[in-house]
Amino acid sequence: MITFRSIAWQNFLSTGNSPNKVLLNKSPTTLIIGKNGEGKSTILDALCFSLFGKPFRNINKNQLINSINGKKCIVEIEFSIGAKDYKIVRGIKPNIFEIWQNGELLNQDAASRDYQKILEQQILKLNYKTFTQVVILGSASFVPFMQLPPSQRREVIEDILDIRIFSTMNQLLKEKAQETKDEIIRVESDIKSAKDKVEAQQVLIKTLSNAKDESIKAVQAKIDANNAQISTTESEIITIVEEINTLKASITGKERLSEDIEKAKQLKTKLNEKVETCEHDAEFFNEHDVCPSCAQDIPEDHKQKIIHDLHNKMQENNKKITDLEDALTNLTNKLTDINKIIDEITTKNIELSTKNSTITLLNKQIKEFETEIETNKADTTNLDEEKAKLKQLAKDALDKITLKNSLQETRNLEEVASILLKDTGIKTAIIREYLPVMNKLINKYLNAMDAYIHFELDEAFNEIVKSRHRDDFTYASFSEGEKMRIDLAILFTWRQIAKMKNSVNTNLLILDEIFDSSLDTAGTDYFLTLMNSFGENSNIFVISHKGDQLFDKFRSVIKFEKRNDFSVIVKT
Questions:
Q1: Same domain, 229 and 321
Q2: How many CA atoms lie within 13 A of 190 on its CB side?
Q3: For residue 564, how far is the Cα from the chain centroid?
Q4: How far, rounded to the nearest angstrom, does the alpha carbon of residue 156 sit from its chain's CA centroid?
Q5: Most confident of the ranges 88-102, 117-131, 362-376
């Protein structure tokens, strides 16, 4: 867990030479107030700049320096992770970037970008985007989770679940796999060359071992035998092709059968959703005697009639599901039979390929035999010397074959590892494991804030939203106040998941002006109640213009004022 302890800044934005310092773990709840332009939101920019080298709001880096003093812009943040204490010092004019661990400065030999990687990947173990999703909910340049593109949503989830390491491993594996592939290609070329040399040497030795005339006759006999075998094999190929065509004619309609199976599965899913909807509605009427919308009593006979109708619908849909499962079984059995025929076709094709390869090999041998005859007529090389040369060539070829087999085993392992490390592998399995927990927490927080909608994320992190009447919605179709409730519920969920995983878990949560725009009075009350349930290990800061309305709701208050054109913290 990251425990942020303090942050201080000077000559940063509207702050002058006298630094402003905020203790981040002093109070469970802190209200930050001040008029517009007095620097109350500067803490967000200081926090992001100290950790990631860029502000929270869309401000150019050169504009972060106080325009009056124009130099010595410094931000320092202190935090602890486990037993290790850290201090990050970052400044402009002069440029400063220091990482202190337990009072010692970490090696700064690395380039600035690599030094930042050490901070993000080895110490914080989260990047700017994930940090702003878990720690900050702001009204300035903040982009809520539901407004991020799916790829960036996945990055946030992977950071929270601490599974980004698999992406790094996958990238390293791709590089290693390419090296292995290139090496296999090189070795195969060497093997082919070695085999060619061995074959040529064998031909040479055989030529020297026999009388030239007898050798020529024997080689010619082989050529004749190869031609006869080629003729026989070609006849066999014709028979196999006819068998393949007959089998292909018996498996028409596979695509239609697959489509029918898919349609049946989709229909079954819809029927299951209808049953689930009926169960949910029945549960609602079983548990409620008063309509939550109009606050009127629901007549018992009316309620029982509705429940009875819902049960009838569930029975009717369950019957349809059973019938559909029987039909699906029959379709699947038919598809299995077709696949068996396809397997048989595949076997025939393999046999056909083998026959063609045999013909190719036989023709190649014929050419080699013809070459051997010509060589036998002219060769006068010493036989013993050629045998010694053949032995060495054979040894070289075997060594290269052994090397290729070893490389191929490595390649096979890399392919298996690649499947596991892809987005559809281990990461998806982990995400699928946590997704029900995430959805349960999101809806728990929505209910706590009196938002009666059912909100879920699918495996692609797209939303599935239904109202109390089971109408389909999207995030964009809600009002700003409802979106804020959803954003808060998701933020609280990520923090809870991070706490469970102990990945990007932190004590700090900063909410910028959420009470000043989108949340109504009821939403504010619900949030304040929820905020006080986070426990003593959380330190929540709320930036607001509504200071006079919220004073008594917080354990401590920080007030910013402008004095002599500089923002300062004053006692309240």
A1: yes
A2: 18
A3: 51
A4: 9
A5: 88-102
Task: Return the pLDDT at 520.
Answer: 56
Question: pLDDT tens digits, residue range 432-443?
Answer: 888 888 888 888
Q: Are 227 and 366 in contact (CB under 8 A)?
A: yes
Could you tell me if 33 and 544 are in contact, meaning their C-beta atoms sit under 8 angstroms apart? Answer: yes
| Domains identified in the chain, total number | 2
Name residues whose C-beta falls within 8 Å of residue 494's C-beta, 6 or more positions apart in sequence: 133, 134, 145, 156, 160
Quote the pLDDT of residue 336.
87
Q: For residue 64, is it within any domain? A: yes
Q: Left if phi > 0, otherwise alpha if psi is -120 to 50, otherwise beta: which for 21? A: beta
Question: Which of these, 380, 383, 402, lies nearest to 391 by C-alpha position?
Answer: 383
Q: Give the E-state strand segments of 402-495 in sequence order.
A: 453-457, 463-467, 472-473
Q: Does residue 405 register a pLDDT over 60? A: yes
Domain boundary among 344, 362, 382: 382
Domain final residue, candidates 335, 350, 382: 382
CA-wise closest residue to 7 among 88, 86, 76, 54: 76
Backbone φ and ψ of 70, nearest 5°: 75, 10
Structural domain containing residue 14 = 2-149+480-570
